[in-house]
Amino acid sequence: MTTSAGIDPRGPRFAATITAVLLLVATFLALIGISTAQAPGWFAYQPLADATFAPGTWAITSASLAQRALDPGFLLTVVIALLFLWSVASPATAPWGVLFRRLVRPRLAPPAELEDPRPPRFSQGVGLFVVGIGLVLHLIGVPWALPIATAAAFIAAFLNAAFAFCLGCQLYLLLQRVGIIGRAASTA
Q1: Top-confidence residue, 12 or 188
Q2: Beta bridge partners of 7
Q3: Fewer CB within a 10 Å sphere, N or C end of the chain?
Q4: pLDDT grade, residue 57 (50/70/90)?
Q5: Local structure of 77: helix, strand or coil
Q6: CB atoms within 10 A of CB 99
Q7: 58 - beta bridge partners?
Q8: Is the separation of the CB atoms in 118 and 172 below 8 Å?
Q9: Whole-angstrom Cα distance, residue 125 to residue 87?
Q10: How many CA atoms lie within 13 A of 62 on its CB side?
Q11: What letter does residue 106 receive in the DSSP assignment?
Q12: How confident is the model at residue 1 (pLDDT cuts 50, 70, 90)?
């Protein structure tokens, strides 16, 4: 197994900043969208015999699959999930990495040290998993699933962007210590 060259640690923080902004907007859109909306009920003194009254139901449970898929919060989260997927599948061509390497890094002093690219890449996979679960649950019709998933991913991206604390990287290192991932194959 060959080790890949190190990466500038400021690159993932730059990407996390843009991702955090996108996730914040997605969380806002999910909060005002169909995922958290209450279904409109009717208020009458004496309901009609064939009418049904279901107080406190969620709009998402009665919405069609198309309505759920066309929710603005859902659409932005799909774009974010595709960006996460792109970062996992091809980090060299991911948009935020390219933007950092071409426009930002040339204006900065060289980093004091480079870091292993595997933990940030794993972190992108964790972000993809979290927002992917939110997307699937939203399509199934689970209320609040999308804003909770985007908010959780936002918190992780914000911690990385603002404080250089990468939750996914810490999870990677923990799993590496336990021996589940990141071990080089023995040549016995």
Answers
A1: 12
A2: 115
A3: C
A4: confident
A5: helix
A6: 15
A7: 38
A8: yes
A9: 8
A10: 10
A11: G
A12: very low
Amino acid identity for residue 13 in this structure: R
Residue 69 CB-density burial (10 A; 0-12 exposed, 13-18 middle, 19+ buried)? middle
Backbone angles phi, psi at 15, to 5 degrees: -65, -40
State phi, psi for 38 to the nearest 5 degrees: -85, 140
Note every long-range contact of 60-66, with CB atoms under 8 Å and residues 24 or more positions apart, other chains counting.
60/34, 60/35, 60/138, 60/141, 60/142, 60/143, 61/141, 61/143, 63/34, 63/141, 65/139
Task: Rank 17-26, 47-56, 97-106, 177-186 by mean pLDDT and report only the highest.
Answer: 17-26
Contact present, 60 and 31 (Cβ < 8 Å): no
Residue 108 contacts residue 10 (beta carbons within 8 Å): yes
Residue with tokens 């962007």: 161
d(CA 92, CA 100): 11
Residues 26 and 134: their CA atoms lie apart, in Å, by 12
Closest CA to 146 of 93, 81, 96: 81
Site of tokens 């923080």: 13
DSSP state of 109: P
